[in-house]
Amino acid sequence: MSKIKRKFTLDDQIKFASFSGDYNPIHINIEESKKTHAGEPIVYGIYLIMWALESLKINIQKGDLLTIDFNHQVNLEKDVKIITNKLKNFIQIVGPENLIYSSFIIHKSNDTKKEKPTNKEVLFSTKIIEPEELNFEDIEVNKKYFNLLGGQKKQIGKKLFPYLTEKLGSELLYEIASLSSIVGMKIPGRHSLFAGLKLSFIEYQSRPFIIVKKKHKILKHLLIEYSGINLSASIKAFVRPKPVETDSIKKLKNTYKKIINIKNTKVLIIGGSRGLGAYITKLSLIMGARVTFTYCICKNDALEIFNDATTNNYQVTFMKLNINKKQDLEKMPNDFDMVYYLATPKIHSNKNKFNFEIYEFYKTFYVKGFSLVVDKFLNNKIIPKFFFPSSIFINESKKEFKEYIKAKTDGEKICDFYKKKHSLKIIYPRIPQLETDQNLSILPNKTNNTAEEALKIIKLMVK
Fold first, then answer.
1. For residue 378, what is the DSSP state?
2. pLDDT tens for residues 288-325?
3. Which residues touch 282 (CB under 8 Å, ≥6 apart)?
4. What is the C-alpha separation between 117 and 170, in angstroms, rounded?
5. To which H or E segment does residue 310 belong?
6. Residue in 227, 234, 220, 183 with CA at minimum distance from that of residue 202
7. 38-48 pLDDT, tens per residue?
8. Quick one: pLDDT band at residue 439, thresholds 50, 70, 90?
9. What's 432's DSSP letter?
10. What separation, in Å, do the N-terminal and C-terminal C-alpha atoms of the chain show?
11. DSSP state of 206
């Protein structure tokens, strides 16, 4: 077992982007990646493989074949380590509790000459830094796509991978890195996920191109063949779902003609810039409430709601709030009739054994964070009514969400504690899975209408 380990930072990602030409926001933009299925920036799969090859000083030869699978996303600032066998031809990149992020096999060539792969000059377009916005239906099978993309700074390769640069050459190294941009920038482009590849080091074309060989309509899966200058590759990728857009105030007003009147009710929506919180924010404004909502990271989402409200002649206030920061909580006003608590991270499944680190992370939101917010209002003469979002997953006992379910169950217990000890009004219905960014998944899943659920919740709070 190798003892090689590291953490990848956002700065690492930005350097690799300028080398590979893959500027997909899911890797380098904290705010934009939050709206994806990943919920935060994820490390480039190709970067992981190149790091392992560099660290283990693998000597790639002409005719060698690498078979690579990307099993789970690797988040920034998380420990990852390399595990390999004695021959160093089976390599795994793993995380906590040996969760396998990526694995690959090196099939050595039978050629006794042991030649180096070719290192001919690679010329890709370096001017484009915005990914293609393709729909699944736009991608044509058996069509050749040219004008491929690479990074603007080839020289960074030598700093990132000095051993591979010496053994393989800077041009071949650049071509390997640029495979990332095929998926992240070209096809499928912005809404993509790299799932795996077979990489063959054989001299191929004078003008590189890609062909989409297969499309799976239900799974949105693609098989892409790359014919390159110093290598060829068979790439597996997914077209991932686009971020969920919140309906405009105008559309909500047209949809819900008969709504309750909560004019001048002072409402605070914590986490009111996205998902369910955004709908409660907008519907509360339509119903006449005096609304304050908070955001944590995605300020642009908050500004969109603010602008939407202003355009429709509604006044709304918003502020930045991190529930784990004492100074943020101290700045938060506490004169409200209703408080909706919708602070939440991205929810991920875990099919392995119970992970206490994941559970403690959820607990900071659903137990500690909620308690801190409620405590802020306990000394008020008039204490507001609170909403805490529990989950239907508790009823369904979904084993792959055991840490999430445990944290939500603990949140319900905290609600019961405050109701009994302080006679607070708290509702905590078990919410079904909704069509929000927090529930985005690569595989299709059944979700409920978020606006309808938001309306039900407001009616419960008004009772």
1. T
2. 999 999 999 889 999 999 999 999 999 999 999 999 89
3. 246, 247, 249, 252, 305, 308, 309
4. 12
5. helix 299-311
6. 227
7. 889 999 999 99
8. low
9. P
10. 61
11. S
